[in-house]
Specification:
about 35% strand, alpha/beta, 2 domains, D-Maltodextrin-Binding Protein, domain 2, binds adenosine-5'-diphosphate, binds magnesium ion
């Protein structure tokens, strides 16, 4: 049995057409079924539905052979025990530093002020500010980061942006793009060695169906 871990929502929705092009159909849809293990039309392939940020953990420990995870999540996880052979080009967005429209962050930074930064992405954020020699105090949040600058929890946020509509709706602006984000196919390193003949064709199939 080959096990592929992925999250429902955006990643599942953008993966399904790729799987279909590879001749693979899930037997159920995660929004309609409460099942967390979904069979496919391939008797030797099943899907695990897990939280986006848990996908690398399932693959790292071999509970899943393969997974699909955002590069944002992979940076936070660190990538131990994982190969990342294919950038699938799906769930594309960008990681950005954002602030309230009326806050002059550029001047604060120039004057060496300490910034309070709210984010779900501690590793990415720590690295970004360290590389620029900017003093930052990080506050970990799990969602709705856009709220933090509006209520004085933080000066700025580091979050994913796609259209910018959520930022705009909350009176925020993108101060700087930190980097592009897309989802990658990840593989357990030991699985790939031990079950190369089973897994490599699937890795190749994904590589041929990237967006
Ligand atoms: P969760 O809310 O559990 O983090 P999402 O479905 O919102 O799950 O996000 C899963 C992944 O999809 C993220 O890790 C990221 O790589 C990507 N993603 C998140 N937000 C966007 C977006 N606005 N546009 C495109 N991709 C996104
Ligand atoms: Mg989300």
């Amino acid at each position: 049995m080959i096990t592929l871990a992925l999250s429902k929502g955006r990643i599942f929705d953008e993966t399904t057409p790729m799987l279909a092009a590879m001749g693979i159909e899930p037997l159920e849809h995660p929004e309609k079924s409460r099942k967390l293990i979904l069979g496919t039309n391939r008797p030797d392939l099943r899907l695990l539905i897990v939280r986006a940020s848990d996908v690398p953990t399932y693959v790292q420990y071999g509970a899943a052979d393969l997974g699909i995870a955002g590069s944002d999540v992979l940076v936070e996880h660190g990538g131990d025990g994982l190969y990342q052979p294919v950038d699938l080009g799906i769930a594309k967005c960008r990681m950005s530093l954002c602030a309230a429209q009326d806050l002059d962050v550029e001047t604060m930074i120039r004057r060496g002020a300490r910034l309070r930064v709210a984010t779900k992405y501690l590793q990415t954020t720590r690295r970004y500010f360290a590389d620029r020699g900017i003093h930052a105090d990080l506050i970990k949040l799990y969602g709705s980061m856009e709220l933090a600058p509006l209520v004085g929890l933080a000066d700025v946020i580091v979050d994913l942006v796609s259209t910018g509509a959520t930022l705009k709706a909350n009176g925020l602006r993108e101060v700087e793009v930190i980097g592009p984000v897309s989802s990658r196919l990840i593989v357990n390193q030991a699985s790939l060695k031990l079950r190369y003949d089973q897994l490599e064709p699937l890795v190749q199939a994904f590589a041929q169906h990237t967006k």
